Amino acid sequence: MEQTVVIIKPDGVKRKLVGKVIQRFEERGLIIKEMFQQTLEESLVKAHYAHLKDKPFFNEILEYMTSGPVIVMILEQENVIQIVRKMIGTTNALEASPGTIRGDFALNASENIIHASDSLESAEMEIRRFFS
Fold it and tell me: Which residue of 6, 25, 32, 58 is surrounded by the most CB atoms within 10 Å?
């Protein structure tokens, strides 16, 4: 069974969208294997977004992702990565289609409600990172 990591980001938690987001995954038949809530440490966020460390907005990401609690989940199902990526919508929330999580809930491009692994390799690495 394929697995992926999903993070409901601080703006999603602060705006009390956790239940609505989880409900969408459950209604789609995805299985929540593990889940926890916590405010992420800066070192963990730096590791998670290391591929963006040279971008001018990297410090904003660090500040945003450590600004409050997040929900971190492992979801499981056949083709779960592809399913979840379609459900959440494009990274730029302003371009996300209505009916996707970002299209329905995100307010701007920088605070886009949710993260999901983008490949099997990323999912495996993120599962080790967050659920070691």
Answer: 6
Residues with catalytic function: 115
Distance CA 71, CA 15 (A): 13
Position 92 scores a pLDDT of 87
pLDDT tens for 83-104 read: 999 999 998 888 999 999 999 9
The whole-angstrom separation of Cα 27 and Cα 122 is 25
Give the CA distances from residue 125 to residues 111, 112, 129, 130, in Å, rounded to whole numbers and listed in that order. Answer: 23, 22, 6, 9
CB 13 within 8 A of CB 69: yes
The pTM (predicted TM-score) of the whole model is 0.94
Answer whether 18's CB lies under 8 Å from 12's CB: yes
Cα pseudo-dihedral 72, 98, 110, 36, rounded to 10: -10
